[in-house]
């Protein structure tokens, strides 16, 4: 009886939370799923049931395929660079360097900056009239005149990627640094006594320890990159010529700018499906860690 009373008490604590979650998350999600199968416009008007027409339309749409390609390129390039740079910086800050405490503290600043602030700062740096990047490149003799880096379809996504890498590589570096702190110094000393060189010590001693957290960081950063919206929206709003329009921006424009709520909901669900695939990969990476069942 006492166990049943405790269970009832816990249930009374959990039920309000479950109700709140269903109201805040469950109903909007179900409503979005339903909208994806209708032709409903934005504004509360009930649309007709169209089945899978919105999804078929998406995969036949050049705009959707282009946005998917932009998202894929942005994700692959930024995540790869963030992992490599973050790993290198983490290894560097793990060395016994003078002033490393200050550098570790400074490492948090880019990651702590709001994305909008970061995007606005880089817009000023890239400014075609008075930007610091143009001034530096011209003084070095690399370019002959100021360039509109964000106004050129062939360079806009690349320079947005630089801004995103600058902000988020520090997260990977911090995760790497935390993993390196858990590597026993005795293992390095034993490997050094055995005559192992620096690369062999890294490959056999350090890498196996930091690989699990690094793989999780890669998956988390991939999920965030797939959902990218704010930094691109602030810097280019998806232009020029849709060269930086990501999947999230396409969803926003279709649903709110063009008022195609049904089609926008279908695009949103495709984005969710892509994220679920990445979450499954993330869950598997967590389960494969030592000591995790």
Would you kindly provide a written description of the structure presented here, covering whatever features stand out?
By secondary structure, the protein is mostly helical. The protein has helices at 2-35, 53-60, 62-93, 100-112, 115-125, 132-139, 156-181, 185-193, 198-226, 230-235, 247-257, 261-287. Helix 3 (62-93) packs antiparallel against helix 9 (198-226) and helix 7 (156-181) packs across helix 9.
List the main descriptive attributes of the protein structure presented here.
73% helix, single chain, flat, mainly alpha, 12 helices, 293 residues
The helix-strand sequence is: HHHHHHHHHHHH
Radius of gyration: 24 Å
Terminal Cα separation, in Å?
A: 33 Å
Number of helices: 12
Proportion of β residues?
A: under 5%
The averaged pLDDT comes out at 85
Low-confidence spans: none
Counting DSSP E segments of at least 2 residues, the number of strands comes to 0
General shape: flat
Provide the structure class. mainly alpha
- Largest sheet report: none
- The helix content, as a percent range, equals over 70%
Short structural description:
The protein is mainly α and 293 residues long. It is 73% helix and 0% strand.
